[in-house]
Amino acid sequence: HTEDELSRSSHSNPGKSLVNGLKTNPASNSPKSSLPVPMGPPVYVDLAYIPNHCSGKNTDPEFFKRVRASYYVVSGNDAANGEPSRAVLDALLEGKSHWGENLQVTLIPTHDTEVTREWYQQTHEKQQELNIMVLASSSTVVMQDESFPACKIEF
Q: Whole-prediction pTM value?
């Protein structure tokens, strides 16, 4: 599809949007067609927050192929809702394997979960091969009566 066709189709279908390149109906939030996002160069950023608390609903290997970050933040801490999703963590490995360059990537989990621990242990060799480092919190921040783990990132 050309850009003009994509533009016309988005104006002729009010109430629909694109999620990972798929047309969706906000009411049902399910893919309606396989209209791909036009290919272009990948986007390089310093820091990317993995969408939807690292849920598998909106993030796949294509996200990691297109959004290339030095740091990815994983914030999920809800096992009942599949957050963080093992599939998304695996998608990082899959997407990064297509970069063609071995840039350092740091994954920053905001919570220590069973899913992230198991993924780390089971894929550690692949992480090293792809130059992916998982950053564990090494500091504690105390604010008022609350304390929590934290890390500092410098650019």
A: 0.67
Q: How many CB atoms lie within 10 A of CB 117?
A: 12
Contact 23, 10 (CB under 8 A): no
Question: What does DSSP assign to residue 47?
Answer: E
Give the chain's count of helices (H) and strands (E).
5, 8
**Residue 43 identity:** V
The pLDDT tens digits of the residues spanning 2-42 come to 444 444 444 444 444 444 444 444 444 444 345 565 678 99
What is d(CA 69, CA 104) in angstroms, rounded to the nearest whole number? 9
Written as six digits, the tokens of 127 are 């992480």
**Residue 7: helix, strand or coil by DSSP?**
helix
